[in-house]
Amino acid sequence: MRMLRSLIVCGLAVFACVALSVALTVAPPIIAPVPIALSIGCAALVLFILSAPSLRFKTVLRFDEIQNHLRLFRLMWERGRPGIPGSGYSAKLAIGLRPRLFHREREYGKAFLITILGLRVHYTRSYGGIFA
């Protein structure tokens, strides 16, 4: 998993550099913000991956008939030390497909669920334990 994370970080960093160099040399001033935004987004993703050494990736690939969506994968990570009061949390970001254009649902605390153009993103935190 660490080698895969390193390859993802290197790929995103190269993409960010290429997009930024294209934006600064070739792109006209009207189109320049798009590659610059892509490079900033990739750089932010690289920093996120590097700052979360406990990042785990799990493929699910399962259809949930009750909630009517296809679960694709989930990312899980920890900040601090979960389970000890006031010292950290475990977070989970689940990605799936849902036959709906737009849906937003705020859950308890810091959790949310949003669907945009069929892409379902679900984020939740646990302060009492680690997600499996």
Q: In what order do the strands lie side by side in the largest sheet?
A: 1-2-3-6-5-4
Termini gap? 16 Å
Biggest β-sheet, characterized?
Answer: 6 strands, antiparallel
**Could you name the ranges where pLDDT drops below 50 across 5 or more consecutive residues?**
none
Radius of gyration (Å): 18 Å
Anisotropy-based shape = globular
Structural class: alpha+beta
Mean pLDDT: 76
Mind sketching the topology for me?
Elements lengths: L1 H24 L7 H19 L4 E9 L4 E12 L7 E10 L4 E5 L5 E5 L2 E8 L6
Antiparallel strand pairs: 1-2, 2-3, 3-6, 4-5, 5-6
Q: How would you explain this protein's 3D organization?
A:
With 132 residues, this protein is α+β, with helices and mostly antiparallel strands. The chain is built from two helices and six strands. The protein has helices at 2-25, 33-51, and strands spanning 56-64, 69-80, 88-97, 102-106, 112-116, 119-126. The protein has a six-stranded antiparallel β-sheet with strand order 1-2-3-6-5-4, with no helix packed on it. A hairpin with a 7-residue loop joins strand 2 (69-80) and strand 3 (88-97). Helix 1 runs antiparallel to helix 2 (33-51).
Can I get a quick summary?
The chain has 132 residues and is of the alpha+beta class. 33% of the residues lie in helices and 37% in strands.
